[in-house]
Amino acid sequence: MRKIVIGIGAVLLAWGFSVWAYPSLPERVATHWGLAGSADGWSSKAMLVFVFPGAILALGLLLKVLPKIDPRQKEVAAHAPTYLLLVNAIMVFLAGIQVVVVGVNLGWPIEMPMLIPVGVGLLLMVIGNLMPRMRPNWFMGIRTPWTLSSEVVWRKTHRLGGYCFMLMGFLMVVIGFVATPERFLYMIGLVIALAVIPLVYSYIAWRREQEAAPSSTHPAGE
């Protein structure tokens, strides 16, 4: 629990702010915004104030527990600090979204279609920075049949993936400042393009490793 104290603290602060704002919130609050920037999803203020923060906290605790059931305990222990940094970053990001959504419903002048890409971009840059430190496991990273079958392929793929995620995050921050309804289409195309690159590379790296490995079979009579 102490290892994710930053994330838990951020969620509790966001929850406390939400409870403080509860009397001032309308009974029906906006929780989703469309491509044009107008709200198109709604819920009760009780759901926003009490259920959403609780779900974020539950997610953080689940992410904290998952490594304990990972069969690759040796690798999990080796990259535990990296994993916990990632969990904290996700919880802080979601807590920030909670505060912003409550703030918008209080009347804060925030442009959600701009803020969300910027926030997601910053989170992706954090993930990209951490990716080269990740070790083979079943719950975090680029888990393909080829990365999970070879530590060398895992390492090479995550080094490339780190660059891709950093670039993806930077470009998403830039896209956030593009005042056009198509910005989310740009985001989707960007994510698909840069996410596919390390997936394809993991297979290519695995094939190269297989081709370079000496054959274990020999002709009869040798």
Structure, explained:
By secondary structure, this protein is mainly α. It folds into 2 domains: 109 residues; 102 residues, no CATH class. 66% of the residues lie in helices and 5% in strands. The protein contains 7 helices and 2 strands. Strands 1-2 form a two-stranded antiparallel ribbon. Strand 1 and strand 2 form a beta hairpin. Helix 6 packs antiparallel against helix 7. The relative contact order is 0.11. The C terminus is likely disordered.
Short structural summary:
Helices cover about 65% and strands about 5% of the residues. With about 220 residues, it is mostly helical.
Number of strands: 2
Q: Average pLDDT, to the nearest integer? A: 87
| Helix content estimate | 55-70%
> What is the chains' assembly state?
single chain
Shape call: globular
Structural class: mainly alpha
SSE pattern, N- to C-terminal: HEEHHHHHH
In angstroms, what is the radius of gyration?
21 Å
Provide the fold topology.
Layout: H1 5-21, E1 28-33, E2 39-44, H2 45-65, H3 73-78, H4 80-106, H5 112-130, H6 151-176, H7 183-212
Antiparallel strand pairs: 1-2
